[in-house]
Amino acid sequence: MIYKRSSALFSEAQKVIPGGVNSPVRAFKAVGGDPIFVEKAKGAYLYDVDGNKLIDYINSWGPMILGHAYEPVVNAIIDKSKKGTSFGMPTQIETEIAALAVSMVPNIDKIRFVNSGTEACMSAVRLARGFTGKDKIIKFAGCYHGHSDSFLIQAGSGAVTFGTPNSPGVTAGTAKDTLLADYNNLENVSRLIDENKDEIACIIIEPVAGNMGCIPPAEGFLQGLRQLCDANQILLVFDEVMTGFRLAKGGVQELLGVNADIITFGKVIGGGLPVGAFAAREEIMNHLAPLGPVYQAGTLSGNPLAMAAGLAMLTELNNRPEIFESLAKKTAYLHEGLEKALNENGVSHTINRIGSMISIHFGDTRVINFDTAAKAAAGDPFKKFFHGMLAEGIYIAPSAYETWFLSDALTFEDLDKTIEACRKVSKQL
Length: 429
Ligand code: KE4
Description:
Layout: H1 4-16, E1 38-42, E2 45-48, E3 53-56, H2 71-81, H3 92-104, E4 110-114, H4 117-132, E5 136-140, H5 157-161, H6 172-175, E6 178-181, H7 186-195, E7 200-205, H8 221-231, E8 235-239, H9 251-256, E9 262-265, E10 276-280, H10 282-285, H11 304-319, H12 322-344, E11 349-354, E12 357-362, H13 370-377, H14 381-391, E13 394-395, E14 404-405, H15 412-426
Parallel strand pairs: 3-13, 5-6, 5-7, 7-8, 8-9
Antiparallel strand pairs: 1-2, 2-3, 4-10, 9-10, 11-12, 12-14
Helix pairs in contact: 2-11, 3-11, 7-8, 12-15, 14-15
Bound molecules: ligand KE4.
């Protein structure tokens, strides 16, 4: 694979954009080398500026669940754009996608659209604080809820990959209200609650973690959090920016049968355009301005183009729920093939998988939380694996702290090619 033009474009980009990227994890810092610039994408494939065709397992970090340039979504954007792009006034399509999302996801009566997952999670925490009148939050080491100050306290995803777990610029005043717990460790959460009696507004969690690789919750963990929240008047916030409309029509609440109080969304809900959202039962959502005192706003929130893309995406998923089953089957097939290929070459590894989210971790430690994820991410195996797979035309996340996201555009032939590439690359690990 030749990447001359990507490297040239990267040099240009670095002159006018910090690090040459608009989001750190894209810069390949964790794996070395220059990032790849994309020319276009269609279905399961990326076409880079050097003419290389790559099988895509990132899918824009989750949104492209039906594959790139999915016709119904593209057509919806084109049609809507002919009627204007933004008004800063209510439009009917916002009600249409809101009603559809509310019908698909359990436990929500109302939803507010914003422009990113960060904004959704930041607003959800403010709402939880406003609703409960309490200041502290519990988050989990390794979980990433976007780059709002309250969350950059040993964040996962880019912040960890980037090696700045506690970002400069976050004040001690902010940090004191964020308590850090250990994923899959109920006793730890219980102790934090006891040590901060009646001060905790919410527990925010990725109910399936995807920012320290993919880590499903241990049996009973989410149920335990639910019980602790009920016993202590704490709101349970499921950050479903990754898992919402991906693991099931109703996300993790439907898949694992645990109810949250506030749920945040992003990625899939926008069909590839900038959309985030947060939702809850009416009693909570009615605390939001202009109805209630908790302020939250946005010039481009509910933008008609983004709503059109999101509505087309959710409509497809709502009408064809068999897609989730198809994705889970393809991911299980991939898991089995990767496992076989790595074992054949004696490569010590573990694989975590749930629905269409999967991650490979090198070493023999089962990855169940941030510490075990960090242990597995250490050293060179992942870097070698990433570049080896790239050389074979397979694009996976440029960080061991990320998860793969499958699209339903992937064929079994693509999966076989990926397994073969893994078999070849693992000989060199
Ligand atoms: P955005 O602000 O990036 O739309 O969403 C933040 C966010 C919130 N919650 C979860 C569970 C998330 O995974 C994210 C963002 N995910 C990362 C990938 N791990 C986005 C990639 C990036 O930062 O460029």
